[in-house]
Design goal:
Largest sheet: 24 strands, antiparallel
Radius of gyration: 46 Å
Structural class: alpha+beta
Oligomer: single chain
Number of helices: 13
Helix content: 10-25%
């Protein structure tokens, strides 16, 4: 009995030791290699597996064997994937019942080169997606753990899990976009890929993402996630790649930006994108944009480049429509202004609301003679849209308060192409009250009101520079204004008439008005066969002549102007009758240099009277050719010609003759004596020749006495005397 007990005890200890050995150390065998190979072949018959001996470790509590092999290799058409280990579990019951089966496999890879991995799978199943991936991915490494479960027929169940990480991957897209140093972890289940801890460099720009998910929905992939980045300094090369393809009209010179982004999009098997959605919170630290906007008429000191700084933006993009809500600093001129903006683009129509707070910069509305005070804060609010034809329409426009209502339509050159109802109530830069309204009926406009300062408006009408207009409207404007200011001293009553605009030019006009003492103004323009005829007659010439800064002390006189313009060249005649001059610096200098001090004294005192002034001249682009200027009066007469190149050069030459010489020549008037020739005695001076030449701000004058008069001067004088 004791022997049996001892035998049983020994068997128990042997079994316990054996069980412990199998549970802790295990054994190695190749008995199950065939079964594992069959399972791999069931996955794909193109794949072979090279196995070493398998280690078996008993799990007595679950009554199964844990199977593990190390250093296996997957082979397909001479392409090899090295496996770190393969694990599975075998039920002891299935062995006892002689029904051996493997219910699962756990495969852990070594560090694999992604390019070789793609090449391996292409050898198994050559699908277009793998070909594209092979073209895009240049290098990188992957380590993965794969968990598979099999049904009773040996097929893989849908609950498989693949996870691991990708490191130091390089991807090139379209030979322009390069992703480098791409690192992330991944977790893949059927039709569901989750990526996390993503770091990558896109064309040297560093990005990170906490999470990206890829889900297969039918034949498409839904991709969504988060992408953030700290401040990026985007260079010119990356601007060409990332910005200009989407904003071709926006010439960005440089940008520093940080952002947090949520995105989603769908991708089909041909790698085509659709349903792109983006929500971003951005901080534009610095943005420099080349200014291609024609805004100098509004912002006179506008810079070549526009600078944005500290702009907070919320951006939403969905199905080619987007919205932007932002605010920050903008440097349009010499100092920063504050800009807020809301933009919404839908169906290629861009709606916008913006407000610009201007503190220490100028702002103008030229045709309205509006200029903000330099030190005052002006708030400009604009609401409008940009339509499918690239035309801007201003729905509302206000300055400081809601008194001014303007509805304008702009083209891409910021020229006004249409106006609707406008109501203006403001004090302009000349401290004049303006209260007018503009109403539209069909394609014609009516401008009415009690007050309007036309000072700047008259300058524009008389200007030969048709292209300076911001109006690009073909229409007729009927005008009826009770009181219109010509300047701070003169005004017209009952100013009325009409103006016709075509191709940015005034092609027809007929305007009349009355001065307070029943004197009149009449202005006309008529265009026939490309020939534009302009006339102006004014009983009071002073408010028009005094516009020329080199003439001071102009008094009395009436003005008659005629101009004919054809093919960019105009021929004009200006006549002024019965006026006095008190100050004319160039004439004073000529008289002084010619020793005609007495006449110079009269000029600076009571003024020199002229019976008539006539100027015949031609304009073509920036060149004015003066064929003749002739002025005759009781004291002196002047004959002059030359040319003026706008803002560059003035060149004039002429003859000045005191009335004493003319009197002697025609023998009909008494000698003026000392007043004309000072204290000198002798035969006197027949005339004086002079030249004036130089840039407008630095003119040089030379004078030479002459003994005889030119035939042209004599002829013109006799013509005037005979006519009178």
């Amino acid at each position: 009995m004791k022997v049996i007990s001892r035998f049983i005890l020994i068997l128990f200890f042997i079994a316990l030791i054996l069980l412990s050995y199998l549970s802790i150390v295990g054994i190695e065998t190749d008995r199950f290699n065939k079964q594992i190979s069959n399972k791999i072949e069931n996955i794909n018959k193109e794949i072979e597996i090279e196995l070493k001996k398998i280690k078996l470790v008993l799990d007595p509590f679950k009554f199964r064997l844990n199977v593990k092999t190390v250093g296996a290799k997957l082979i397909s058409r001479n392409r090899i994937i090295e496996i770190e280990n393969i694990k599975t579990q075998i039920s002891l019951r299935s062995l006892i019942d002689n029904q051996f089966s493997i219910e699962n496999l756990e495969i852990s890879t070594k560090s694999l080169e992604i390019t070789k991995l793609i090449s391996f799978f292409r050898s198994v199943k050559n699908i277009p997606e793998l070909f594209i991936l092979e073209k895009f991915i240049k290098k990188g490494y992957l380590i993965a753990d794969i968990k598979l479960e099999f049904d009773r027929e040996g097929k893989i169940k849908d609950n498989y899990i693949i996870n691991g990480f990708v490191k130091d991957t390089k991807v090139s897209l379209l030979k322009k976009y390069h992703i480098e140093k791409l690192n992330f972890i991944f977790d893949y289940k059927k039709d569901d890929l989750q990526l996390g801890d993503i770091l990558f460099s896109l064309n040297d720009l560093r990005f990170l993402s906490e999470k990206v998910s890829v889900k297969k929905i039918k034949d498409e992939f839904l991709i969504k996630g988060y992408v953030n980045h700290d401040e990026l300094n985007i260079n010119q090369k990356n601007l060409e790649l990332f910005i200009k393809p989407f904003f071709s009209n926006l010439n960005i010179e440089r940008i520093k930006v940080s952002s947090k982004n949520i995105f989603s999009f769908k991708l089909n098997k041909k790698f085509q994108f659709k349903d792109l959605n983006i929500e971003s919170e951005m901080l534009i630290n610095e943005l420099e944009v080349f200014n291609n906007l024609s805004l100098k008429k509004f912002f006179p000191e506008i810079k070549k480049n526009i600078f944005f700084s500290n702009n907070q933006l919320s951006v939403k993009y969905k199905n080619n429509n987007f919205s932007i809500n932002g605010n920050g600093n903008v440097l349009l001129q010499d100092k920063n202004d504050n800009l807020t903006y809301i933009l919404n683009k839908k169906n290629n129509v861009l709606d916008f609301k913006t407000s610009l707070k201007i503190k220490d910069n100028p702002f103008l509305i030229g045709p309205l003679n509006y200029e903000k005070n330099q030190n005052d804060e002006t708030l400009i609010k604009i609401e409008g849209l940009k339509d499918k034809n690239n035309l801007f329409q201003i729905k509302s426009f206000s300055l400081n308060e809601e008194k001014n209502k303007i509805d304008l339509v702009f083209n891409d050159k910021f020229e006004i192409t249409d106006l609707a109802n406008i109501y203006l109530n403001y004090v302009d830069k000349e401290k004049q009250k303006n209260l007018i309204s503009l109403s539209k009926k069909k394609n014609k406009y009516s401008l009415k009101g009690p007050f309007f300062n036309a000072n700047k408006f008259i300058d524009d009408l008389l200007s030969d520079d048709d292209n300076s207009s911001i109006f690009n409207i073909n229409t007729q404007i009927n005008i009826d204004i009770d009181k219109i200011y010509l300047d701070n001293e003169y005004h017209l009553l009952n100013f009325s008439g009409d103006i016709t605009l075509k191709d940015k030019k005034v092609v027809k006009a007929n305007l009349v008005g009355n001065f307070s003492n029943d004197k009149k103004l009449k202005f006309t323009i008529n265009t026939n066969d490309n020939n534009k005829i302009t006339t102006l007659y004014v009983d009071k010439a002073e408010p028009f002549v005094r516009r020329y800064k080199f003439i001071k002390g102009f008094d009395e006189g009436s003005l008659d102007f005629y101009s004919s313009k054809k093919f960019e060249e105009s021929i004009s005649k200006l006549k002024i009758y019965n006026f006095k001059l008190k100050e004319l610096p160039i004439l004073t200098k000529i008289l002084t240099l010619a020793s005609l001090q007495g006449i110079a004294d009269i000029l600076s005192g009571e003024g020199i009277r002229f019976d008539e002034f006539e100027m015949n001249f031609r304009n073509k682009k920036n060149l004015m050719t003066i064929d003749e200027i002739y002025a005759i009066g009781p004291a002196i007469s002047i004959l002059m010609n030359g040319y003026v190149e706008k803002n560059k050069l003035i060149s004039l030459r002429g003859t000045l003759v005191p009335a004493t010489t003319i009197n002697k020549f025609i023998g009909s008037l008494p000698v003026l004596g000392k007043i004309l020739v000072g204290q000198k005695t002798g035969e006197g001076v027949f005339g004086v020749s002079f030249k004036i030449k130089g840039p407008p701000k630095n003119l040089e004058t030379t004078v030479n006495p002459i003994k005889t008069l030119t035939p042209r001067f004599i002829t013109r004088t006799l013509e005037k005397i005979k006519k009178n």
